[in-house]
Specification:
This protein is of the alpha+beta class. The protein contains one helix and two strands, in the order ββα.
């Protein structure tokens, strides 16, 4: 279930010829650091998952 946190305030910087609107990055809160010995290769993991599913495509 989504948290009911109020949205963070936008920052608006006005310049002579334009405005820059920035907002906080909500993904910073869920970022987690892992040690180098525990790095994961998402491409290899996806290829392994597809290899496991490849037999199921023959039935289509």
């Amino acid at each position: 279930m989504a948290k009911d946190n109020p949205p963070a305030a936008l920052q608006i910087k006005a310049f002579a010829d334009h405005h820059v609107i920035t907002q906080p990055n909500p993904l910073r809160k869920v970022l987690r650091r892992v040690p180098e010995s525990d790095l994961d290769d998402p491409v290899a993991r996806a290829e392994k998952a597809l290899a496991g599913l490849s037999g199921e495509f023959k039935n289509w």
